[in-house]
Amino acid sequence: MGYHFEAEAQAEIMRIRLASSYSFSDLLAFEELDYDRNGTLTIDEFGRKLALCGLEPDIDDLRLLMDRFDPKGRGEVSYREFAMEMAPKSPEKRR
After folding, report:
1. Angstrom distance (rounded) from CA 41 to CA 34
2. Which one, 13, 18, 56, 82, has least CB within 10 Å?
3. pTM for the complete prediction?
4. Distance between CA atoms of 66 and 29, rounded to whole angstroms?
5. Which residues pair with 77 in a beta bridge?
6. Architecture of domain 23-87
């Protein structure tokens, strides 16, 4: 299996696990990332949170993450975009 497909399969497994967890809330996760409380997420906010979690992604990794959550390429992620990306993509696996 190619790297892209492997990464997407792993991402889907994580989405399914989060969706099935009663303790996970995509709204609370979004609010945790939204440091300036303006209702959108930026590449800097993603990077800041990942750094606080002990991860230090480089700018290319952060751009890939933003591309995933910001399909329109506006440089910010709305709650709706965040929630859509966090939701399982497999129809039979959705809550």
Report:
1. 6
2. 56
3. 0.78
4. 16
5. 41
6. Orthogonal Bundle (1.10)
N- to C-terminal Cα distance for the chain?
28
- Asked if residues 75 and 43 have their Cβ atoms less than 8 Å apart, the reply is yes
Structure tokens at 39: 């209702």
Cβ–Cβ < 8 Å for 94, 87:
yes
For residues 58 and 51, the answer to whether their CB atoms sit within 8 Å is no
Residue 41 host element (H or E)? strand 40-41
| 40 contacts 76 by C-beta, under 8 angstroms | yes
Residues 58, 61, 63, 66: is their CA dihedral positive or negative? negative
| Model confidence pLDDT, tens digit, residues 21-75 | 777 788 999 999 999 999 999 999 999 998 998 988 899 989 988 998 998 999 9
